[in-house]
Specification:
This protein has 343 residues and is α+β, with helices and mostly antiparallel strands. Helices cover 39% and strands 19% of the residues.
Length: 343
C-alpha cells in the first residue's frame, strides 16, 4: 500500500515525467507500466488495491498534455485489438523534435526558459506552458543560477485568470461591466478572443453576444466576478491578439491631446517622463491616448498644474472632474463647519 505520508508530487513535475517516459520508449508503455513506474503516479500506485482514482488522474493528464501540444498516441497491441488494458501510449520523438538545424546553447536555453516563466500561476498562458514543456524536453542543461532572478508579472485585475481559462477552453463568459458615465454596471455576455496589454493596461477583445459584434473591454472596468458558462464556441478567424493590438494602436494614434503644464511642477516632471522630452522645464506636451476617461482622471489629479488645450471633449471631461471634487469638498465642509455668524 502507498504511504499516506508520501510527499505530493507537483502536477507540473508529474506531467513532465510522463512526457519524458513516453518519449524514451519506441513501443510505448501500458497504463499499468506508467502508473507503477512514472514519477507522480508510482508513489500512489498499489499492485493489489484499487487504482481507479489514479487511472482517472492519468486520463485527465493525457488530455492536459495533448492540450499543451504534445502529440501523444494510443497504439493497440498487435493481435489484441479493442482491449483497453493492452493499449500502449507513446510520443513519437520525431513529431516532438525541433528541426535538426535548430540548436540552442545552454545560455540560450536559460534565457528562453526565463522568458517562458515570466508568467506565473494564474496568468500562465497556454503558449508559455507549451514553451516550457518543449524547452525541458530538449535535454540541454541550462545555467540555473540566473533563474533565481526570474521576473514576476503580477496581474492586478482578478478577472484575468478566469478570462485566460475561458480563452483556453473556448467558453463564453459573463461579467458586470461599468462604462464611464454610467452609474450602474451591466452584465455582459462575451465570447473571449484575446487578452492583450496596451499602454500598461489589460484589455479583453471578444464578441459581445447581445450586441452581436466585436468589442474591446478594459479589465479594470470589470467590477465583479467573471463566470464561465457551459456554452462553448469556435472562433471565426485567427491572430485575434494581433488584430486587437492593431485596433488599439489605431485608436491611440488617432487621439491626440495638447496640454500645458506648470514648469518644474510634479505634473511637468511626471508627464514629461511619459510623453515629453524628460525635461521638467518643458511645458507644452502632445499626448496620444486610447481612453479619454482614463486620461481625464490622470490630468484632473494634477489640479491646476495641467491645462488641456485640446480637444474640447477632453478639457470638458477634466473640468467636470475638478468641479465634482470641489462640490464634494464643499458639501463636506458644509456638514462639518459650525454655523456661520451673522454679524
Amino acid at each position: 500500500m502507498p504511504s499516506s505520508s508520501t510527499t505530493r508530487v507537483p502536477v507540473e513535475e508529474r506531467l513532465f515525467s510522463l512526457v519524458l517516459a513516453l518519449l524514451a520508449t519506441e513501443t510505448g508503455l501500458t497504463k499499468s507500466e506508467i502508473l507503477s513506474t512514472v514519477q507522480g503516479y508510482r508513489q500512489r500506485y498499489s499492485q493489489f488495491a484499487d487504482n481507479a482514482s489514479l487511472e482517472r488522474q492519468f486520463e485527465r493528464d493525457k488530455d492536459d498534455i495533448r492540450e499543451l501540444g504534445v502529440p501523444l498516441e494510443t497504439v493497440e497491441a498487435p493481435g489484441d485489438p479493442g482491449n483497453n488494458q493492452s493499449l500502449r501510449y507513446r510520443i513519437p520523438k520525431g513529431a516532438y523534435d525541433l528541426p535538426a538545424d535548430v540548436v540552442f546553447s545552454a545560455e540560450e536555453i536559460t534565457l528562453l526558459g526565463l522568458a517562458a516563466t515570466v508568467w506565473r500561476e494564474g496568468s500562465l498562458s497556454a503558449e508559455s506552458r507549451r514553451a516550457i514543456m518543449k524547452l525541458r524536453s530538449l535535454g540541454v542543461e541550462s545555467d540555473e543560477p540566473i533563474l533565481g532572478y526570474a521576473p514576476r508579472l503580477r496581474v492586478r485585475e482578478s478577472s484575468f485568470e478566469p478570462l485566460s481559462i475561458a480563452l483556453e477552453r473556448k467558453n463564453i463568459v459573463t461579467f458586470p461591466y461599468l462604462k464611464p458615465g454610467e452609474r450602474a454596471s451591466r452584465l455582459r455576455t462575451v465570447a473571449p478572443l484575446a487578452l492583450v496589454q496596451h499602454e500598461g493596461r489589460w484589455h479583453l477583445q471578444g464578441i459581445d453576444q447581445d450586441a452581436h459584434g466585436s468589442r474591446t473591454f478594459l479589465l479594470s472596468r470589470i467590477v465583479g466576478p467573471v463566470s464561465l458558462t457551459n456554452r462553448g464556441f469556435e472562433p471565426d478567424g485567427s491572430d485575434f491578439a494581433a488584430h486587437a493590438l492593431d485596433e488599439l494602436e489605431r485608436i491611440w494614434l488617432g487621439n491626440v491631446a495638447e496640454i500645458e503644464v506648470v514648469a518644474k511642477s510634479d505634473a511637468a516632471i511626471r508627464l514629461n517622463k511619459r510623453y515629453g522630452d524628460r525635461s521638467p522645464s518643458n511645458t507644452h506636451l502632445t499626448v496620444h491616448y486610447t481612453d479619454a476617461n482614463i486620461l481625464a482622471d490622470e490630468f484632473a489629479s494634477y489640479g491646476p498644474e495641467v491645462l488641456v488645450l485640446s480637444p474640447d471633449s477632453l478639457r470638458d471631461a477634466v473640468r467636470s472632474r475638478l468641479d465634482a471634487t470641489v462640490a464634494s469638498h464643499r458639501d463636506t465642509f458644509a456638514h462639518t463647519e459650525p454655523g456661520a455668524r451673522d454679524d
